[in-house]
């Protein structure tokens, strides 16, 4: 009996042990409860079992709508894959599991859908111009459910427009659009236009529920309010640096061109830049400068001008002689001088000289010398002056002419004793300096060249050296000749030839001595008597 009771207890223990080691039949759906899925993505529902070796699965929707997905069984679990998720998948999905004698089990899960895939798209109407209407378009692509959609348009922090899509009964994804137009001011350029999209579905848990996009307002306008700034100013001294800056309001940035009005009314094109720099201003830089700004998008042009005045002491820019600095006597000559300054200079052209007489003289830029003479050659100066100072420049006029004033000097004389030395010197003026040569007239009457130099020296003069000598002064402009005749006196070799001269001299002396004595005596008597009478004097003498 005891043995039987023991066996019964052991059997109960075995049954209890088996019951404890065998798992109960269970199932679950993953994910469980409520699922929030975004349209267009992939959703996988898994129906999993435990405690059943060979379960069979069945998927369906309430109201027996199409599954909108693919079922795959994998032993103890089954999957329903929706790829992509669409609006047809917005159902309660029921999974039923059959397990032989263990019966069946069911569970359901609710799939709720939304679509908020991307940030808003902002479009601002192109080629808009300040002062004109700008249209801003904000698009929300593929949104669902749109009945909860809220859109806000802002300019910086200022709200331009709001829209709520309450009551929208769309049953699929749609692109929702908000359009707003306004007139921007110039100060609005560069400010951000922001589109804020909200999808606050209260019973759905997804992120993000707010999306934001921004774009800077880039309205095209201008150019306008164009001005030129001159630094250090529009009136400056010659040699100073000058910077001209052209400022304007324009979008997009304009093309800038600098121009300058010239004295002949033509226009000089300078640079394409908003800053025009002149490191060292010259008088020629004076004038009217034009800044032209062109907006190629708005097809508008605006200009600004500034008048620049460069002042300073004169600078002589030209000093010249026409037709040349070297001319021939008799030509017409003009000397010209040009100078730059502001205020305009007073110009004086004159002959350079240390004396008070500065002729020729011209109080102007041209000095005329008609039929120039060799005396007009030499240095000339141009003086330009104004209240800031003066400037001086010099030039030399070279007047060429043929030989003139040709002269011959003979030392000791043209009549000399035989055996002496005679020096004959020929001088002549001319430009270029003349070449001097000597010729002697032969018995045939022809002249023979005998010497090429200014000074002809004849030593130990002989009778055959007498005759006519000619000096010739020559340059490429002409020649001039002068002649001199040498008279050679022969020596007296017979002393008897002097006797008649001695006798004549003695006779004159015999008569002259008494006469001189009488005159001395009369003179003394006149001093004593206070008067003089030649007759009385002679009577007394007798």
From TrEMBL:
Membrane topology: Single-pass type I membrane protein
Keywords of the record: Cell adhesion, Cell membrane, Disulfide bond, Glycoprotein, Immunoglobulin domain, Membrane, Repeat, Signal, Transmembrane, Transmembrane helix
Alphabetical GO biological process terms: cell-cell adhesion
Keyword check for Disulfide bond: yes
Signal peptide region: 1-24
Annotated GO CC locations: plasma membrane
Compartments reported by the entry: Cell membrane
Pfam entry (one): C2-set
MF-aspect GO terms: integrin binding
CDD domains: Ig
Membrane spanning residue stretches: 498-522
Protein name in UniProt: Vascular cell adhesion protein 1 isoform X1
Source species taxonomy: Eukaryota, Metazoa, Chordata, Craniata, Vertebrata
Encoding gene, per UniProt annotation: VCAM1
């Amino acid at each position: 009996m005891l043995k039987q009771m023991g066996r019964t207890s052991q059997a109960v223990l075995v049954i209890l042990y088996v019951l404890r080691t065998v798992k109960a039949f269970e199932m679950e759906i993953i994910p469980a409860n409520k699922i929030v899925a975004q349209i267009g993505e992939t959703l996988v529902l898994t129906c999993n079992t435990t405690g059943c070796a060979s379960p069979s699965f069945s998927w369906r929707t309430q109201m027996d709508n199409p599954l909108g997905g693919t079922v795959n069984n994998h032993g103890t679990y089954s999957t329903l894959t929706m790829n992509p998720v669409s609006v047809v998948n917005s159902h309660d999905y029921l999974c039923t599991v059959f397990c032989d004698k263990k019966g069946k089990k069911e569970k359901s899960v609710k799939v709720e859908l939304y679509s908020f895939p991307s940030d808003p798209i902002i479009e601002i109407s192109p080629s808009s111009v300040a002062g004109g209407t700008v249209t801003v378009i904000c698009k929300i692509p593929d949104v669902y459910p749109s009945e909860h959609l809220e859109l806000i348009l802002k300019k910086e922090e200022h709200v331009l427009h709001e829209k709520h899509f309450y009551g929208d009964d769309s049953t699929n994804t749609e692109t929702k659009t908000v359009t707003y137009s306004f007139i921007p001011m110039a100060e609005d350029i560069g400010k951000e236009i922001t589109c804020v999209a909200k999808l606050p579905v209260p019973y759905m848990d997804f992120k993000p529920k707010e999306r934001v996009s921004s774009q800077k307002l880039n309205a095209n306008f201008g150019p306008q309010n164009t001005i030129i700034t001159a630094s250090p100013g529009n009136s400056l001294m010659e040699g100073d640096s000058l910077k001209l800056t052209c400022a304007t309001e324009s979008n997009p940035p304009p093309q800038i061109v600098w121009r300058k009005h010239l004295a002949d009314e033509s226009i000089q094109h300078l640079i394409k830049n908003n800053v025009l720099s002149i490191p060292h201003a010259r008088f020629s830089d004076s004038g009217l400068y034009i800044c032209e700004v062109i907006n190629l998008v708005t097809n508008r042009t605006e200009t600004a001008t500034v008048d620049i005045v460069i002042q300073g002491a004169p600078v002589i820019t030209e000093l010249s002689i026409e037709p040349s600095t070297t001319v021939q006597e008799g030509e017409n000559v003009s000397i010209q001088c040009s100078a730059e300054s502001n205020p305009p200079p007073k110009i004086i052209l004159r002959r350079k000289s240390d004396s008070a007489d500065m002729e020729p003289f011209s109080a102007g830029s041209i000095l005329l010398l008609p039929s120039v003479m060799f005396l007009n050659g030499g240095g000339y100066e141009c003086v330009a002056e104004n209240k800031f100072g003066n400037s001086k420049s010099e030039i030399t006029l070279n007047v060429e002419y043929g030989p003139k004033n040709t002269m011959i000097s003979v030392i000791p004389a043209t009549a000399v004793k035989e055996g002496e030395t005679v020096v004959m010197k020929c001088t002549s003026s001319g430009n270029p300096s003349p070449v001097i040569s000597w010729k002697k007239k032969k018995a045939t009457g022809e002249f023979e060249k005998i010497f090429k130099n200014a000074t002809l020296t004849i030593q130990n003069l002989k009778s055959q050296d007498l005759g006519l000598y000619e000096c010739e002064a020559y340059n490429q402009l002409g020649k001039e000749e002068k002649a001199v005749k040498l008279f050679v006196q022969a020596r007296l070799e017979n002393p008897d030839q002097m006797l008649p001269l001695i006798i004549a001299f003695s006779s004159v002396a015999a008569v002259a001595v008494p006469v001189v004595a009488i005159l001395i005596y009369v003179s003394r008597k006149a001093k004593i008597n206070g008067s003089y009478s030649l007759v009385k004097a002679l009577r007394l003498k007798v």
